């Protein structure tokens, strides 16, 4: 079985966009690539064959959710996530840090992965220990304590615990435990949080290498990515990129079990995530700062981003991987991507529209079903409504990034973007 | 394109069970066969490919539901039900009569397709015009007026209207409009209702032949089945079977358009449904009475029945077709068929059971997923939980009837039934 590697196959002239290949024990990911989210060990409403048929090369599952239910120990006993959920391709798990953020400081507020508001009231610095709203998570120096959103039980996650959970799940690519801060936090808090994230990154890396050395097996994660944080502060973002790029621990090559600490080789992260909750207008600036510093020979994953315009921005700035619930979540709610922008399929004008969502689309849904049928299924609350819409949305986004990859090879990325955004109405 | 025909291929010695073949414009149905229900133009939670992969040869859609939403005219405009829902195989539509029953006299009571109670209080005769409970349907001599369960709008369905709706939907096999009575009705009401059903059957047959002659096209239903009613009254059931068997109207061969009424040929029903709401213990008696009289050369469809033990009873008594929401509805609720009886997959004992639902089962679900995963998906409210359970249940029931067909050919039906029911716990 292949271990983890990354190679840049083509880089555009006068820019940062690049096409590459990530090798994992469960297959390759040709980058740039969009990775659909399988939060709870299933891409909602789709069987794995449909995920693959839509063009997905890998899936990303959420550590936080699977830790709580069914439990990472159970998944390990089942033979790991690949076998448990019947996905033979590469799997990525996140660190749980983002969920800690959304259950903690962001809980009950309108702050998400992308924060569109620039409301000055919301931008008043708030500390994570602000008690005006109920929170399910509390951040300490050593880790995070939180209450399960399922049953209220109390849990404590440290970097070591996060890595252990991710090793039990057995994804191909895992992430260091981090603290995702709100864009509304002040610089003082951002710096404090970032230092914590870096300490946690080091401990994650150490524990990952330790586990690899002690129990090396093909079913263990072969790659660990560090997560760059720092909010929208230039100095902090650059510092984070530099520190994580240079961070190494004593380790040894994969599959050399039983020799932890004995090797003189120092190894670092296999790739990097760019984390954070962004005001939309800050995102490209942050990605630019960070990717100027991150090493060229390691893959970069922009976490939780999936709008077409943001995917272009990321690819142009040297991002290799994206994941986002957007195409699947929107699909289940009847919002569908088209080359002209998003449409709401239950809109009256589609009731008698017997053409496919897009004539030019080769997805399963567009090949066989009309807008009228899908619109009717949503109105009738039929389960396959979400399935059909999700298949198209996933196909749309996955192939959009695949097209970007192709255009990197033939030098037409800029042209392709212009053409796409000329007809696509951003909403 | 083939028109409708039926042939008996094998009949067992010393019994009524038979294997046959129904030819329709959209393919053959090898009988006996279980037909899954696609109430609202979709077998709930499954894409059509999964329905086919589970072994289904045809689907049955509900006229009442499709008439109200999206409307039969819209389905017609879409090119008919086959195209609209992407099901290339044979389609059957019911008459709407059962829904009229369940929204009328049975509304708000514990009376369904199979009524398990023999509570003497419930068996006190009640008339359909009993006003103690709110009803959505009212039966008149000419047809039924009812209120939509969706928006409260008022509708009136006559036999002609039911046939017209079914022609618009364009299924291969359609049913005459009937009144399904409650087993709690007295003999007087049963007789009155039966006479009405027979008058409606005649009008359905006449209107079907008229429409066929006037607008003959390959997209029109090629077969009309009459529905035998009569509650649990022997004389009425036998009378109904005889009258419908002998009922003919002036007609002409299919696809001889524009000659309605000019032909001297008298034609009758292409097959028969056995309708009714049954106390479980009455069902086999009723089926025996009826099938003794119905012609051997026409197919017989026992409407709405799907429990394994009832399928055996039906096949033994010469039934060729069954349909039922049972395997799909139970599947969505986490109740799964096994050779040892039904199991509830969320039961604690399956939490760490990493074996498939049935080792010997060749369905998609059993080939790739563990009980632990399916159990977890139900607890996590994931959409594909219902999909995976439904696939197995459908495969189980469809193949059970397929096995009966095989055993008819090799003379082992009795043995096969004994073997099955020895391990299968009826619940």
UniProtKB/TrEMBL annotation, chains A, B:
Residues 304-310, 328-332 are annotated as: RNA binding. GO terms for cellular component: cytoplasm. InterPro entries: ArchSynthase1/Queuine_TRR (IPR050076), TGT (IPR004803), TGT-like_sf (IPR036511), tRNA_ribo_trans-like (IPR002616). Pfam families: TGT. The active site is at 94 (proton acceptor), 323 (nucleophile). Its EC number is 2.4.2.29. Signal peptide: none annotated. Keywords: Glycosyltransferase, Metal-binding, Queuosine biosynthesis, Transferase, tRNA processing, Zinc. Residues 16-424 form the tRNA-guanine(15) transglycosylase-like domain. It catalyses: 7-aminomethyl-7-carbaguanine + guanosine(34) in tRNA = 7-aminomethyl-7-carbaguanosine(34) in tRNA + guanine. It is an enzyme of class 2 (transferase). Zn(2+) binds at residues 361, 363, 366, 392. Binds 1 zinc ion per subunit. One of its GO terms (biological process) is tRNA queuosine(34) biosynthetic process. One of its GO terms (molecular function) is tRNA-guanosine(34) queuine transglycosylase activity. Its cofactor is Zn(2+). Transmembrane segments: none annotated. Pathway: tRNA modification; tRNA-queuosine biosynthesis. Substrate binds at residues 94-98, 178, 229, 276. Belongs to the queuine tRNA-ribosyltransferase family. NCBIfam families: tgt_general (TIGR00449). Homodimer. Within each dimer, one monomer is responsible for RNA recognition and catalysis, while the other monomer binds to the replacement base PreQ1. Catalyzes the base-exchange of a guanine (G) residue with the queuine precursor 7-aminomethyl-7-deazaguanine (PreQ1) at position 34 (anticodon wobble position) in tRNAs with GU(N) anticodons (tRNA-Asp, -Asn, -His and -Tyr). Catalysis occurs through a double-displacement mechanism. The nucleophile active site attacks the C1' of nucleotide 34 to detach the guanine base from the RNA, forming a covalent enzyme-RNA intermediate. The proton acceptor active site deprotonates the incoming PreQ1, allowing a nucleophilic attack on the C1' of the ribose to form the product. This is Queuine tRNA-ribosyltransferase. It comes from Candidatus Zambryskibacteria bacterium CG11_big_fil_rev_8_21_14_0_20_40_24.
